[in-house]
Design brief:
The chain is an alpha+beta fold. It has 1 helix and 6 strands; from the N terminus they run αββββββ. The protein has one domain. The chain starts with a helix and ends in an 11-residue tail after the last strand.
Length: about 100
């Protein structure tokens, strides 16, 4: 008997404590740019993926950022271009970066 009261109490709390979450962030119409990836300074390509955020209530699929100009730049102002391979994925050739530079 004691166990059934416990289960009823948990069910009541579970269903009674729901309320909508409306984040206080004002998002631009285009969404924020999300940059994820890694810079490989040895053998292998560097890869960067560019996407856009969507609203929590939006059921849209992932929005990829196409035709962007993506480069890697070191503190000596040397630049290394990345090229779009597919769906917002940008890759570089093998880079031999100086590990002493930022």
């Amino acid at each position: 008997m004691k166990r059934s009261y416990f289960l009823i109490a948990i069910l009541v709390l579970f269903f009674a404590c729901k309320e909508a979450y409306n984040p206080p962030v004002v998002s631009p119409v285009t969404g924020y740019l999300v940059v994820e990836g890694f810079i490989n300074s040895g053998n292998g390509a560097s890869t960067i993926k560019l996407t856009r955020t969507t609203k929590l209530v939006d059921s849209a699929a992932i929005i990829y950022e196409h035709n962007a100009q993506v480069t890697i730049e070191d503190e000596s102002n040397a630049t290394y271009p990345l090229y779009e391979r597919d769906s917002g994925n940008y890759v570089s050739d093998d880079l031999l970066l100086n590990p002493a530079l930022k």
